[in-house]
Amino acid sequence: MQQVFNFSAGPAMLPHEVLEQAQKELLNWNGLGTSVMEISHRGKPFIEVAEQAEQDLRDLLGVPANYSVLFMHGGGRGQFSTVPLNISKAGDLSEHLVTGQWSISAEKEAQKFTKTNIVASTETDENGLVYVPEQKDWEINPNAAYFQYCPNETVEGIEIDWVPQTGGVPLVADMSSNILSKQINVEDYGILYAGAQKNIGPSGLTLVIINNDLLGKARPDAPSIFNYELQANADSMVNTPPTFSWYLAGLVFKWLKGKGGIAAIEAQNKQKADLLYNFIDQSDFYANKVAVPNRSKMNVTFSLAHAKVLDPIFLQESNSAGLAALKGHRAVGGMRASIYNAMPIEGVKALIEFMKEFERTKG
Fold it and tell me: Which residues of the chain have pLDDT under 50?
């Protein structure tokens, strides 16, 4: 079977070792003669899985004791409404930094529950490169219920490597595409959340890490399964959680620990991104349209010369070469190589070799 490197933006590739372990355990998990998908979420065997996964995550990210870790439903998009339902009142203001498709969607959803204000959005410099304005050019209302941003935008390939300073306004971060990819200080955030299907595990699970000071503020009409306080008090089991996704996330956390933790995986991610961007930069055939300080280390977007003619050929030939899912998001077109934690450096090198040969023969 041909080796395939999956560059999908999400659901994304999972570590090969994790998939192999899940495959071995699928029909007979822990000697029970059944799958982990088929056991009660309230039974001792699964409770142990849940508790170990949370502890491993806390170890990896250094989550303090005064933060709750929730394993929820609804994906990252579900949190666009869950956040205001939990930490704002009707008529409150929410502040937003808009840097791409996901922060745009978050602001639009927040309009249903709060007054919203966009403090800043991406701009284009004199060279046609997209960048995020520095915070010195922003104004944040100190009375806002929260400030929301997306540190890594998968569609456009835009990343913010610094943490906004909000002067006491709770900072909410959608880390769906870069959580566990680099070291962070959890205490910088009031809430951070992430859909699982990029760096955590399969789709269906949403991770929420919340400062306990923000619990107990939910609106009376907030659905119980999206009430942070109720979920925290019920160990994320107000209803049946996505157990298989939770189990697989736990395997990924163990895999990350075995790789040396977040510091080690961050170094690997930087190496992968540097290789690919350096190749693109030295080429007259490929181009990245994001300013260097805001280039994503998770989602490398690029365009081809003569794109209208060559894009479909590039996609067809790259797929045949075992380089899957390189088509850019429909909103922006072009190409996108998502190189999350599970993508080995060999995959990036294989992509570069293919791009070199494509440029040589088609450029």
Answer: none
